[in-house]
């Protein structure tokens, strides 16, 4: 290198290399190779682009328009290797200096955004740029904090040999501040072994609780666990220790997870682990858990759980693909009643009987649905003669066509005494062994059936369409088909079942609902969010099969939802359906009523239910 006196330096060198600390009182700096003044923000833009190129060269990514970088090594802060690559590029490749001509040159990629862009750039790059623009810094790598301290210049003005030397000194100060060493004579630097960059390293997710095993049945169990942060959740399992060919996945980032193994065989040891990643892709995995499935027909309770499946207006023909094994009782929907008590057949009677015959040939019970929304005029119910006509007509079709029984669905305003009289009369006219159930909405009077429950085989509570808005007194959003109440202001099947039990109806005669259709709430994107007004409900029913991606099981509700941009859908998928069946069995309830079969055709829903029935229900 050639030493030159101060008088021979360019204005740039004079600024950087005077005996006193440089103070930038202007917002401009002279780039000698351009022979003009440009804003410092433009100078920063040039440096920013160069560092972006270096990061790409080090294995990271740089988005020039978005002003974001991704460092290599999984995003766990600024690793030693990334720092070495970037600093090496700054010292040797970020600039060229013609000592004889006093010209500083930059080799830069094209950049695609304006000069005033440093504000939102990644913290690690801000640290480096701050040092280059301001002159020096103190950097605490452990805390990710930097302090700008402009020391007295280390070289007398006559001793500065070139601009590269000044840059090396500044980089050396950065390295020493970060815990490394810098040899000014040789230009060698040593970086610390561990660094975290701004903000430190991302913590590895740890278990808060679990994994725990509960509700063991003949086909599996419920696996639950909670993490120290939001993570994905997966369960892998098999029938030998360390071998896990089966996987249940959940891609949503949640603090707690609950998943159901439902396809195991009875009396079989099960081994498994839960695992996932956090938002920074840091993995976790549990130790192995193990349990043994219950014997066939045993598990959690003593009741033989029934599944009431609605086959809605199916114009059935021989050979139609119906998975009859996915329910124990099939409700063939429906026959209406006119004002005089006469029957109104809503679809072809020949096809109705074909469906009944196919159902019974598969070993299942066939029930005829009487009524439905708008299909049971109420005039006949209020008179003795009307009830007599209606009950005679209903009993004749059940007794003569070979149905195993019936279920009524009255969704009108009726007097409890009239309903009591109807039930008593109909039971007296049915042949021995014929089943009689009633489908009821959660707000229908319990007094309709409580006094005459001894004449009935059961009551099926239609615990869906239960969402409330703030105008109804609800304070949080909820799933329309929730099993559990997540807040005292919202609905849940468990709560409603308790009301009917309190009226003297035994659990064995109570069933509750599973919704195989989606309902949408606008204004919130998940259950459990605070309501503030402005929310609304979409009263349409969307088939389960039409929305399959992004399903999230909400263990607190015992239901499934799909988050959308400004709304969410809720329904029951195989996981929440099986969870409800396990709950019914464990608690001794009569069963579950599903609306409706056609909504889930073409999905794994029915085969999952058939597997559960084969192992758990009589």
Give a structural overview:
The strands form eight sheets. Strands 17-18-20-21-22-23-24-30 form an eight-stranded parallel β-barrel, surrounded by four helices. Helix 2 (40-57) packs across helix 3 (80-93), helix 7 (384-401) packs parallel to helix 8 (416-429) and helix 10 (574-587) runs parallel beside helix 11. Strand 1 (28-31) and strand 2 form a beta hairpin. The protein is elongated, with a radius of gyration of 37 Å. 39% of the residues are buried. It starts with 10 loop residues before the first helix and ends with a helix. 24% of the residues lie in helices and 28% in strands. It has eleven helices and 30 strands. The chain folds into three domains: 6-190, no CATH class; 207-292, Immunoglobulins (Immunoglobulin-like, Sandwich), CATH 2.60.40; 306-513 and 572-616, TIM Barrel. It is α/β, with parallel strands linked by helices.
């Amino acid at each position: 290198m050639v030493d030159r006196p101060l008088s021979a330096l360019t204005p740039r060198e004079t600024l950087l290399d005077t005996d006193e600390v440089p103070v930038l009182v202007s917002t401009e700096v002279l780039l000698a190779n351009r022979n003009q003044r440009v804003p410092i923000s433009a100078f920063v833009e040039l440096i920013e682009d160069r560092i972006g190129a270096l990061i790409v060269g080090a294995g990271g990514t740089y988005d020039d328009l978005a002003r974001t970088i991704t460092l290599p090594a999984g995003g766990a802060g600024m690793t030693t290797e990334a720092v070495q690559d970037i600093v090496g590029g700054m010292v040797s490749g970020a600039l060229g200096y013609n000592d004889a001509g006093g010209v500083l040159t930059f080799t830069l990629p094209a950049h695609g955004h304006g000069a005033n862009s440093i504000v939102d750039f990644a913290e690690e790059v801000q640290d480096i740029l701050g040092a280059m623009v301001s002159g020096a810094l103190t950097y605490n790598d452990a805390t990710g904090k930097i302090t700008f301290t402009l020391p007295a210049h280390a070289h007398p003005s006559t001793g500065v040999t070139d601009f590269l030397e000044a840059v090396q000194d500044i980089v050396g100060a950065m390295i020493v501040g970060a815990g490394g060493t810098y040899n000014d004579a040789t230009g060698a630097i040593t970086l610390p072994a561990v660094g975290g960059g701004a903000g430190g390293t991302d913590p590895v997710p740890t278990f808060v609780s679990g994994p725990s095993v509960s509700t063991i049945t003949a086909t599996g169990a419920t696996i639950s666990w909670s993490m120290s942060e939001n993570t994905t959740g997966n369960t892998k399992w098999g029938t030998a220790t360390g071998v896990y060919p089966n996987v249940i996945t959940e891609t949503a980032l949640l603090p707690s997870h609950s998943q159901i193994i439902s396809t195991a065989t009875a009396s079989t040891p099960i081994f498994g682990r839960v695992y996932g990643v956090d938002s920074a892709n840091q993995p976790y995995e549990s130790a192995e858990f193990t349990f043994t499935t219950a014997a066939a027909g045993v598990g959690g309770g003593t009741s033989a759980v029934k599944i009431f499946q609605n086959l809605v207006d199916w114009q059935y023909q021989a050979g139609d693909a119906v998975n009859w094994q996915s329910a124990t009782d099939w409700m063939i929907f429906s026959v209406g009643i006119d004002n005089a008590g006469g029957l109104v057949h809503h679809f072809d009677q020949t096809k109705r009987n074909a469906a009944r015959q196919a159902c019974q040939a598969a070993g299942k019970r066939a029930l005829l649905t009487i009524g439905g929304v708008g299909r049971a005029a109420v005039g006949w119910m209020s008179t003795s003669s009307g009830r007599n006509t209606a009950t005679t007509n209903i009993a004749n079709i059940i007794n003569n066509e070979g149905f195993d029984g019936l279920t009524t669905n009255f969704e009108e305003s009726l007097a409890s005494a009239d309903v009591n009289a109807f039930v008593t009369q109909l039971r007296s006219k049915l042949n021995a062994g014929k089943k009689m159930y009633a489908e009821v909405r959660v707000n229908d009077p319990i007094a309709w059936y409580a006094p005459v429950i001894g004449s009935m085989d059961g009551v099926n509570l239609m615990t869906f369409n239960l969402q409330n808005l703030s105008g109804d007194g609800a304070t949080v959003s909820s799933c329309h088909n929730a099993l559990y109440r997540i807040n005292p202001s919202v609905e849940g099947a468990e709560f409603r079942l308790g009301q009917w039990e309190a009226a003297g109806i035994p659990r064995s005669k109570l069933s509750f609902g599973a919704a195989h259709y989606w309902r949408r709430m606008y204004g919130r994107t998940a259950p459990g969010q605070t309501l503030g007004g402005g929310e609304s409900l979409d009263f349409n029913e969307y088939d389960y099969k039409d929305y399959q991606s992004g399903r999230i099981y909400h263990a607190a509700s015992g239901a499934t939802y799909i988050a959308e941009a400004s709304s969410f859908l809720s329904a029951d998928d195989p996981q929440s359906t099986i969870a409800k069946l396990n709950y019914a069995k464990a608690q001794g309830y009569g069963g579950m009523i599903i609306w409706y079969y056609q909504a889930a055709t073409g999905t794994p829903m029915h085969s999952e239910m058939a597997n559960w029935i084969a192992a758990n229900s009589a």
